[in-house]
Write a structure and sequence with these properties.
The protein has about 260 residues and is α+β, with helices and mostly antiparallel strands. The protein folds into three domains: about 130 residues, Gyrase A, domain 2, CATH 3.30.1360; about 45 residues; about 45 residues, no CATH class. It has twelve helices and four strands. Strands 1-2-4-3 form a four-stranded antiparallel β-sheet. The chain is flat. It starts with a strand and ends in an 8-residue tail after the last helix. The structure holds flavin-adenine dinucleotide. Flavin-adenine dinucleotide binds next to α8. The site of flavin-adenine dinucleotide has 9 residues, from α8.
Length: about 260
């Protein structure tokens, strides 16, 4: 699996991305015109730390439109259709183009063997690869028999590899990373977003730092399947609320009412 950031380059990210977001943020609170703000930010008249500080506070406050002005384009290759089916469920602020199983008659379709099967008994692993090879061989036979690719592909397994190009604005990328870097996400898509985060870090460590499991900005885990806190990144919200209830009870006993809403 590969995820390569095609755009922006490090130079473009450093020259334009911070000033663009800073301009979006400052425009809301300034009498200056946006192009003046942008000129001051991109020429270095506004210190990078000052720009980052404002941007961090605005992102943490949830004012997401300010980070919709910048986009990241990734070439994603060698992922399975299992992954791509999950990925394209994201709708807001993201665009995809994917290798077509309809228009492309594959000469050699390839597939992925998941780690659990690689580590499984030789018998299971061999049966898995035999099933895959059979399906893909039959796909080739169907094409040779004149069955159109759009129908022959019906025999392709979920493990079949595919390629996509994805462009997401920063708001969408943070949202998607929040869900897909979470330890509850499926391993392959989680791995993809680890690669994506690595690529964004490569052009901007500051912007890359916002790509994190959703519990990090939230401060707690809201995943139902983590009530037992087997993932320890953040406490589960049940426990946070229980701690809050305890605090409220203690405050009440001391004669102080804490707000309940
Ligand atoms: C761990 C995990 C397990 C999952 N399991 C399943 C499953 O079993 N079955 C299944 O079908 N899916 C499953 N999904 C997919 C999930 O339900 C979402 O479809 C997917 O994660 C896209 O998320 P989203 O809708 O928040 O994101 P996006 O589509 O990227 O949207 C971003 C945000 O924009 C807003 N938004 C977008 N579109 C609308 C709209 N039309 N109306 C109002 N607000 C909108 C919402 O606030 C949304 O959160 C799973 C996802 C995860 C992460």
């Amino acid at each position: 699996m590969r995820a390569k950031l095609l755009f922006p380059t490090r130079e473009i990210a450093q020259q334009y991305y911070l000033p663009l977001i800073y301009t979006a943020c400052r425009t809301c609170y300034s009498e200056l015109e946006p192009d003046d703000i942008f000129e001051r930010a991109s020429s270095g008249r506004v210190a990078t730390e000052k720009q980052q500080d404002l941007i961090r506070r605005v992102i943490e406050s949830g004012h997401g439109s300010t980070i919709e002005h910048i986009v990241f384009t990734f070439a994603i290759s060698g992922v399975t259709r299992t992954l791509s089916h999950q990925l394209v469920r994201h709708r807001a602020g993201v665009a995809f183009d994917q290798q077509s199983q309809r228009y492309l008659d594959y000469k050699r379709p390839s597939y992925m063997v998941p780690g659990t099967l690689q580590d499984a008994s030789a018998d299971l692993r061999d049966r898995f690869t035999a099933e895959m090879d059979d399906s893909l061989r039959f796909y080739g036979e169907l094409l040779e028999a004149g069955i159109p690719g759009e129908d022959a592909r019906f025999v392709m397994p979920n493990a079949t590899r595919t390629n996509l190009i994805m462009t997401a604005n920063l708001r969408a990328l943070i949202h998607m990373s929040g869900l897909r870097l979470c330890t509850m996400a499926q391993w392959e898509i989680r791995r993809l977003f680890q690669l994506i985060r690595h690529e964004v870090f490569g052009v901007s460590p500051f912007l890359g730092s916002f790509l994190a499991p959703k519990c990090v900005p939230l401060g707690y885990c809201d995943e139902d399947r983590n009530r037992d806190e087997h993932c320890p990144i953040r406490p589960h919200k049940d426990n946070v609320l229980a701690a809050w209830a305890e605090k409220r009870t203690a405050a009440k006993a001391a004669g102080r009412e804490l707000p309940t809403v």
